[in-house]
């Protein structure tokens, strides 16, 4: 096991692990981990997801339990030392680190120290250390056992295994490979005042057969109860089988259900929100039936087959038979049977994994050939794994204090984005008033003012990208596309209602903010993350219909040097031009100076009042401007971390990173600014300036003849 971190495993278990550094890989590498089920994960999150990876031998987590909190420490102690050098290099550092970890635990916590201590406790220790060792011990003490007793006595900790009477086979957890003698090496330690909370400790022999370990499972029963989760606003997750979205039969079933939707009576009291809520509820119901998750919920390893699972069950049964007949004349027979099945399972798994990787390689290759890099890279990232999740990482607050509690982290991110997305306007109102609206041709006026047609809704839907996260209504673009014509007709009805009544759906105004690490800088600093808005997909389709209506009009008015978010004018072209200039300058031995500028938080700090007036200047009708304003009117946001949502807050500036019109709106704004700069330079008599730009980054380069180029990317 290498590095440390947290991950979610099968059936939503949370694995918190600590191992050797990945840069220090050796054959002797080892590690420790704590695995929490859903209820225990909830208790862990309630205490702020507190954990510490001390080293490859110790990891600690804290759980919010009732009536007291629990600190669980998983350990893997060094083997019994053979000489004084081993004591000083392995045993001493281990117990020093364990003592330091224990000292950090709050005094009121119940402490559970569980793991392989590689120590033996003798029967006589019940007499000499009655407060630490119970009467039910089965070994002869060794040097590691003496060290363990000293640690327990010093910290008022008891060895709970020794207080429960069981058959010896349910007390001993490991057999020596040479002497074949069974020993008790795995212990559950608990601080003395909570000894009565332990109801039972015993070994279970059957569990080891499926995973091939030489230690048996040690089970500890406690009588405390996990506290119910604090009330949090949690994101609604609507789970469907994504693979079935590609199944034509499933899509036809979904479309038939949409065709059979109940027709609502149109009443004056029915609002657009009522209509949209009915749409969302029915789509969830129909999609859940048509694209239903399989029984395992997709959490099983993808490469596992029924044949392998059957063999694993047989191997576990063979292991149990072997354990039951140890020391008899039949032991060799059952041992041989177990080893044969173990080797067979290993070969089957290796062969299936090779086959599975070959299949995935073909899928990635096909995605690249079909010019679908998003799918290819998403598969590569998923298979590569190994990246630490950022959800549970601590962060700095405004005062550079570390925040580890999950509630405090969520509040910190809310405050950060609240400040980021509410930038005070510094635009002179007189400047806004001086912007002259363009004169619009009557035919163009009628074209823009016309409500979206069914064909336009279908076209906008096709332009949505698959595999993207949905907004707060839980409906993804994949589901809407799978709905085909019936879905388009229903959306068309809603869009026409919005267009005619100029009333937006309330859910459309709330964005879910997720964080995206910039892959540079300290992960504990909020400024090193992008905030991406997850918007309701239906609102993005509505935005796309508007953008499709006006994009050609806006595109032909932008300066020809504009690159980025324009057809046939990629920023790649600008990079190529820059490369050519650099090569030419080098060939003729001319000095070249480049000045790079990145406009900080450009999308998030746009003044919206200025934005709408500039739209009119570029020939957009009042109807189109009002529709765009509706999409940005009274907008709100919530931060999502680990499926928990913060309180909502208002968003009064910016154009929402993730919004469909955002890029073109910002480009038009930037085009307007650049034109004003050109006009001012001409007024001042400055010449020799050539501009080429993209979205929100630009650089200026100067060659020796003082001609200046400015590129924006």
Overall 3D shape = elongated
Tally of structural domains = 3
Percentage of residues assigned to helices: 40-55%
Kindly state the number of beta strands.
Answer: 27
- In what order do the strands lie side by side in the largest sheet? 4-5-7-8-12-9
Structural class: alpha+beta
From the alpha carbons, calculate the radius of gyration and give it in angstroms. 33 Å
In round numbers, the mean pLDDT is 81
Largest sheet data: 6 strands, mixed
**Number of helical segments with 4 or more residues:** 20
Content of β-strand: 15-25%
Report the uncertain regions. 225-233, 698-713
Distance between the termini: 43 Å
Please give a structural write-up.
The structure is a single chain. By secondary structure, the chain is of the alpha+beta class. The chain has three domains: 4-226, Endonuclease/exonuclease/phosphatase (Deoxyribonuclease I, Chain A, 4-Layer Sandwich), CATH 3.60.10.10; 306-384, no CATH class; 396-450 and 504-712, no CATH class. Helix content is 40%, strand content 17%. The chain has 20 helices and 27 strands. The strands form eight sheets. The protein has a six-stranded mixed β-sheet with strand order 4-5-7-8-12-9. Strands 16, 19, 20, 22, 23 and 24 form a six-stranded mixed β-sheet that branches. Strands 21-26-27-25 form a four-stranded mixed β-sheet, covered by helices on one side. Helix 6 (272-290) runs antiparallel to helix 15 (484-501) and helix 13 (454-462) crosses helix 15. The longest helix has 39 residues, at 331-369. The chain is elongated, with a radius of gyration of 33 Å.
